[in-house]
Amino acid sequence: MGFIFTVEEKCKGCYACIRSCPAKAIRVKEGIAGVMDERCVACGYCIDICAAGAKQTRSEVELVRRLLKEPAPVIALLSSSLPAAFPEVRPGQMVSALKKLGFSEVMEAAFGAELVCREYGRFVAENESKPVISSTCPAMVSFIEKFHPELIDYLAPIVSPAVAMGRVVKWQYNPDARVVFIGPCIAKKAERSDEMVGGVIDAVLTFPELGGMLAVKGIDPASEEDGELSGPRPGLGRLWPVPGGLLKIAGLSADILSSDIVVAEGIDRSTSCLREFVEGKARTKFLDIFFCQGCIDGPAIDNDLSLFERRRLIVEYALNEVDRARTESDIERYAGIDLRRGFTDRYTELPTPGEKEISRVLGQINKAGTENQLNCGACGYDSCRELAIAVCQGLAENEMCWPYLVDRLQGTQNELIRIEKMTSLGQMAASIAHEINNPLAGVLVYTKLLAKKMTLDTVKKEEALDHLAKMESEVSRCSRIIRNLLDFARQTEPMLRLVDVNQVLEQVISMVGHQAHLQNVEYVKEFGPSLPKVKADFDQLQQVFTNLMLNAIQAMPQGGKLTFKTSAENNKVRVDVQDTGCGIPKENLDKLGTPFFTTKEKGKGVGLGVAVVYGIVERHDGKVEVQSEVGRGTTFTVYLGVHDDEAS
Ligand code: ADP
Hints:
Layout: E1 4-6, H1 16-20, E2 26-29, E3 32-35, H2 45-49, E4 55-57, H3 61-69, E5 74-78, H4 82-85, H5 91-101, E6 105-108, H6 110-126, E7 132-133, H7 138-147, H8 161-173, E8 178-183, H9 187-192, E9 203-206, H10 207-216, H11 245-250, E10 261-264, H12 267-278, E11 286-289, H13 307-320, H14 324-333, H15 355-364, H16 384-392, H17 402-455, H18 461-489, E12 497-499, H19 501-518, E13 521-526, E14 534-536, H20 538-554, E15 560-569, E16 572-579, H21 586-589, H22 609-619, E17 623-629, E18 633-641
Parallel strand pairs: 5-6, 5-8, 7-11, 8-9, 10-11, 13-15
Antiparallel strand pairs: 1-4, 2-3, 12-14, 15-16, 16-18, 17-18
Helix pairs in contact: 6-8, 15-16, 17-18, 17-19, 17-22, 19-20, 20-22
This protein binds adenosine-5'-diphosphate.
Residues 547, 551-552, 555, 579, 581-584, 592, 597-600, 605-611, 634 line the site of adenosine-5'-diphosphate (ADP).
C-alpha cells in the first residue's frame, strides 16, 4: 500500500486532486478518486487541496510507538524546519517533549545537510562537463524515476541529509539505535523504504503526526524546559529547508547573471526545467530542484505562516546557535561516511488510446465535435479530450463530465415523471373503471328497455327519444372520461404555453373527482376570478395537481373536505390544495420531495408523487410550500410565475 490513500467515505468526487496531481496518479472508480501507488510520488499536493480531508498520509505513529517500547534506543532526527512548523516551541523544548515520549536522544538532521552539501560542492566541481540535477527532494527523485528515467543519469548520486544522518547514526554513532526522522515531508516515508538508501531510517513521522502523539500523551512542548540536543552539530546546515539553502551551505552561487546554477521550486517551474533537460535544451550546470517551495513549504506543515515568515524563523535559528569549531570537528569525525546512492528506473506506461477510441468516448459524453467541447475543467482534466483519453486509459469515468451528468439527470427526472404518471394512472384506473361501468350499465338498461318496448310495439316516440338522449349523455360522459385519460397518459414533449390554472384544476377534478366521491370526500372549488395566465406546460401542471389531489384523498380514508383555492399574489398565481386528512408528522416534512419516500403500505405508494410535484414546479421557476398538522390536515401551496404579458 502507498503512502497516500483515499478515505472513501470522505471523497466527495470534486476531482480537485486530479487537477493538483503532477503525476496523473489519481484513478476514479465509481466516483471515488483513489491514488495509484505505482504513479504516486508522495508530493502531498492532493492532501493539501482536498477540502474534504479524504486524502491522507499513511501514518507511521503505531510503528514509532512499537519502536519506543522495544529495548533498543530510539533516536529522533529533527528536521531543521521545526521552527516553521512549531513557531511557539524552542528546539530545546521539543527535545524535552520527545524524550518524554520515550526517545533516547534527539539530533538535528541538518548535520546531514552539512555532509551532503560538501559532497555536492565536490561533485558539481568534478562533473563540469555534464549537467547535474539535485536529488535532495525525494518527491522529485521519485518523479524522475517514474516519469523521466532518461534523466536518472543527471541526478546527483548523493543521499538526502536525512539519509546521511541515518548513516551517521547507524554506521558510526550507535549502530544499535533505531532512527526516526521527523519532518515536513510525506515523500520521506517513501524514501526510507527505497532499496537504494534503505535500512538507516526506521520510521518517518510528519510534524502533524508528532503533534498528535504529543497531544495523546498530554505533553505540551511549549511548556517544557529546554533539553539538550545530542550528536554532531550543524552550522549553516540548518538553512537546508530554505530555497537555495543547499547552494548557500555548499558555497555554490546562483548568480542572476549566470545560468550555470538554477534553483527551481514548485511544480510548474521545476517541471518546465525538467522539460528543458528532456529536450536537450538545458544550459544549466546544476539544477537544484524541489516539488515544493523548499522544505519550509512541505505538505506536512500545518499552520498559516507565510513562506517569508517561515524563512525568517529558520534563518534566525540557523544564525543563532552556531558553534563553527564544533561543526568543523564533527564534519571531520564523520567525513568517512559514504554518501553515495543509486536510482531505479520505475517507469510505468499508460496505454496510448487511438483516435477512434478517444472519439468514441467523446461521443458517449456528448462531446463529439470541438464545438461541443466546453473544456470546463470540472472533471479535473484541462480539456474534454484529456478526460476522454483518461477514460480510455482506465483513469477516469464518463460520469466525471458534469455537463453530461446534468443532461443525464434531466433525462432521469423526465423518466421519474413518466413513472409517476403511470402510477397515478394505475391508481385512477380502478375508479375510472367504476365510473365508466355505471353509465355503460345505464346504456345497456335503456337499450334493452327500448328493444323490448319496440318488440311489443308499446314505445312512444317521446319516450324513445328521452331514452336515446339519456343514452347519448351517458355515452358522451364515458367518451369524455376516456379522452381525459388518454390526454393524461399521452407522452408529449413538454411545451410551454399560456395556461389558465383554473382550467387545469377543472380538468384534474373531472378525472379524479369521482374517486373523491367514492371515498366520501367533498371537494370545494374556491377559484379566484379572472386569474392571470401562467406560462407552463399544461400536461405537467395537470400531473402536479393530480398527484396532490390523489394524496389528499388518500389522506382522508374516512372522508373529509378537499378545497382548491386559487388567487393572484404579487405576479404569482397561488394554488392551495387543502385537505382535512391525517396530516404529516414534523419529522417527515423534510423528507417530502425525496424520491421514494413513502409512508404508504407496499403496493399503495411508491414515493414519487411529491418528488415529481417539486421537480415540475421548480422547472417552472415556481415554489411549493407545505403546512401540515397531524390529525387536522395538510395544505400544499403552489406558486407559479405569471406570464409577463399577464403581469399587471
Ligand atoms: P406516495 O403517495 O407514493 O407515498 P408521494 O411522494 O406522493 O408518494 O408522497 C410521499 C408521502 O408524503 C406519502 O407517503 C405521505 O406520507 C406523505 N403525504 C403526501 N401528501 C400528503 C397529504 N396530503 N397528507 C398526508 N400525507 C401526505
